[in-house]
Structures are given as structure tokens and as C-alpha cells.
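Exam revision sheet. Question 4 asks you to relate a sequence to its structure. Input first:
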Amino acid sequence: MSKTDLGSAQRLNELVALLAATVDSRVDGNPERSYTARLLQSGPIRCGKKIAEEGAEVALAIAAQGRKEVASETADLIFHLLVGLRAKGVSLDMVADALAERRGVSGLAEKASRTPKD
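Answer key, C-alpha cells:
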């Protein structure tokens, strides 16, 4: 990873941590005044639907739009992922642990090791 990439990764890490803290602070917020509180109070199913919607928007932006639009749609997706994780009670530490377990493992090998779902 280059110095520039490392700096960008650190900046993104800091911003995601701040955003996660903001999401956490809205758990008991007023859903009439806070979109985040409204999403959290709507539950994991609604949050999951928003993540799917935002993921599709990222995919479409990557396929057919410019870099600025891709970055903007990705920011939306990251926000909605954080809300969905919070709604489901999944911490960023749990996500980090899952990523750490996969480090150095081929994506093909990791996928092959998964138990098939019925």
C-alpha cells in the first residue's frame, strides 16, 4: 500500500468511526427529526432493504457514471451499512474480526469453505 493509500485509508477509518458514533448517538433519537433514528426504529428488515437499494445505486454508478457519483453513492452505502449493522447489533469490531480471519486467504478458497445454505 502506498503512502497516499495509507493516508486515505486512515482518513476513511476516522470518518467511518465518527459516522458510526453518530449512528450510535441516534438510537434513541426522535424519528421525526432524525433520518438515522427513523431507520433504526424501523428495524433490520427496512435497513436491509435500504442497503440493497444503495448497493444497486453503487453498482449502477460504477457501470455508467463518473467517479464523483461513484464516491457519493458509496458514501450513501457506507452510511446505510453502519445503520444496518447497528440495527442488527453487529459492531465494527465484529466486522474487523471477520476481515482479519480472511486476511491472506484467497477469495476463491474462502468462498469454497462456506457451508452451503439450504
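Marking note for examiners. The two ends are 39 Å apart (CA to CA).
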